[in-house]
Request: fold
Amino acid sequence: MVRLAILASGNGTNAQRISEYFSGNSQVSVDCIVYNKRDAFVAERARKLGVPAYYFGRADFYDNGRVLQFLKERGIDWVILAGFLWLVPEDILKAFPNRIINIHPALLPNYGGKGMYGHHVHEAVIANKESESGITIHIVDNHYDRGTILFQAKCELTAADTPDTLADKIHQLEQRYFPEVIEKTVLQ
Ligand code: GAR
Reply:
């Protein structure tokens, strides 16, 4: 069994979709959800799904190694970033070389980097009057949004689109493709 840990910071729609997709799967399982904002709605989703969820703060990620120790103790094989908004600490990167996958709500290398997350991305895309946007699923390295790209999917934009309508289009792409791409990648 390939064991996944999902890291999330907020709403958790991707974490939920991934958990549901792999529920009952004989080869891949979501072992746990780790979140880094105490009031993140993802914790409530995890409770309803019956997936164990654990809160860790900044020091646990960056100073005392608790998150890495936790991932090791649980025998995690791959780490999935699903709306996780901090840079992955060096010790975790080293312990999971090319085994951390992120989803970004734009067509990287455009609209990536520090500060480019969630709605900020959609606002920038709309402000620049782009004719398309999309999602990028990629391997994580020690820079924001820069690792090897595994998959991209696009959506068209019209003059009528707003950051909110774009966010809806992006969420649809994420829900449709992220679990499948994870499955293919971790079973390769
Ligand atoms: C998703 O759209 C994801 O692509 C984005 O945050 C959202 C989280 O939604 N990630 C980033 O912006 C990473 N730079 P969710 O919590 O409902 O899954």
Summary: The domain at 2-186 is CATH 3.40.50.170 (Rossmann fold). Residues 8, 10-14, 82-83, 103-105, 117-118, 121, 170, 174 surround glycinamide ribonucleotide (CB under 6 Å). The helical segments are 13-22, 42-49, 58-62, 66-73, 90-95, 118-127, 163-186. The mean pLDDT is 97.
